[in-house]
Design goal:
By secondary structure, the chain is α+β, with helices and mostly antiparallel strands. The chain has helices at about 1-20, 25-45, 55-70, 75-110, 140-155, 195-205, 210-215, 235-250, 260-270, 280-285, 290-300, 305-315, 320-335; strands at about 130, 175, 185-190, 215-220, 340, 345, 350-355. A five-stranded mixed beta sheet has the order 2-4-3-6-7. The longest helix has about 35 residues, at about 75-110.
């Protein structure tokens, strides 16, 4: 283990030594000589041969030289300590390589290097993450989570090779146009009404006329954590009303160009109230559930529904049917397309995680 640990340390020192060699070539020569010995010893260990170079003894002797002269009684305990430290260096290095490989595979397959807490990954796309539960409470659970992460990674790898245009994904959402435009590709756009990244994504889509270039199915998706709690306080209520309005259909007095269900999402993401406050922030930070529902009922009237139709939408929003639609969407997002964060979009045959970009 000493020769392997020394090789690891020498590898880490390579950059510094290379820089110093510019000014002191003798340093580079000495380092290269030692490095070749270390590699020769490691190469024999890898091929299960006996290390004949004496490199291990050379390393120990160089470390213990002064101790032997001054305090010979400490030679044995320090020698043992060297062995222990060498083992620890090797184990930490192996563990780091495995964790690095795991993070890299997760980033490639899931879009995040942190499977349980996607928002914690600085390398992934900016998302509102679909987190796991509260996490391990003891070392045994931690091991279980570690293997579970690998399971999620491997189950998501085939997604990179799927042609998503040929997938039948039975989402419940808002079809923006009653008659789908001919010769126009389809897209699925999954957004949480309370997610700030979804707000950015939605605005970018409008600016790029995303909703004009594709037959978009808009899927409102209230993010839940592993414990079943909703990440944003009124997202579930907004989702219920959006799906209920989509079920109700477009009223006779509707003045928009898409649907009231779409207009609810658009107002949440792009408009402000009379006090110049963004509606998303108001629903997230200021409205109770009752106040949020009262505001949504006002919007339905504004969008052209009469009193009877508003009552029907309210009834639908609280129905078992809508609850099943939300549960169905949750199952598809988490277990079928393996999304670890929202927004998630499917278009041009690929799955895209994070805010929309041109």
């Amino acid at each position: 283990m000493v020769c392997i640990a020394a090789f690891i340390i020498l590898c880490l020192m390579s950059v510094v030594v290379a820089f110093l060699s510019i000014f002191r070539r003798d340093i580079g020569k000495r380092w290269w000589k030692t490095f070749k010995k270390a590699w020769g010893c490691v190469g024999k260990r890898i091929t299960l041969q006996k290390c004949e170079t004496g490199f291990k003894e050379d390393i120990k002797t160089s470390i213990l030289a002064k101790v032997i002269v001054k305090k010979p009684k400490l030679v044995k305990p320090i020698s043992a300590a060297i062995e222990v430290v060498a083992v620890l260096i090797v184990l930490v290095t192996v563990w780091s390589v495995i964790e690095g490989a795991k993070a890299g595979l997760a980033l490639w397959s899931l879009g995040t290097c942190n499977v349980q807490r996607p928002e914690a990954c600085a390398l992934g796309a900016e998302v509102c993450s679909i987190d796991g539960d509260s996490g391990p409470k003891n070392p045994i659970e931690a091991v279980g989570y570690w293997f579970s992460d690998w399971g999620e990674i491997f189950s998501a790898i085939p997604d990179k090779f799927r042609d998503w245009d040929n997938e039948t994904l039975d989402f419940n959402g808002v079809q923006l146009f009653a008659d789908l435009k001919k010769n126009t590709p389809r897209a699925i756009d999954i957004l949480d009404p309370g997610c700030s990244v979804c707000l950015q994504s939605f605005r970018a889509q409008i600016a790029d006329d995303f909703f004009g270039h594709y037959n978009v199915l808009l899927v409102p998706f209230p993010i839940q954590d592993g414990d079943g709690n909703y990440k944003f306080p009124n997202s579930k209520l907004i989702t219920e009303y959006v799906l209920a309005a989509a079920m109700q259909g477009v009223p006779d007095d509707y003045k928009g160009d898409k649907s009231p269900a779409f207009d609810i999402m658009k107002r949440i993401f792009t408009e402000k109230n009379e006090d110049k406050k963004n509606w998303q922030a108001i629903f997230n930070n200021f409205y109770s559930n009752e106040e949020a529902e009262a505001e949504l009922l006002k919007w339905l009237t504004e969008f052209g529904y009469n009193t009877e139709e508003v009552a029907q939408i309210k009834e639908k929003a609280a129905s078992e049917e809508v609850a099943k639609m939300i549960a169905r969407n949750n199952d598809l997002v988490v277990n079928n397309i393996h999304a670890k964060g929202i927004p998630t979009m499917i278009y041009n045959g690929k799955k895209h995680t994070g805010a929309y970009e041109k």
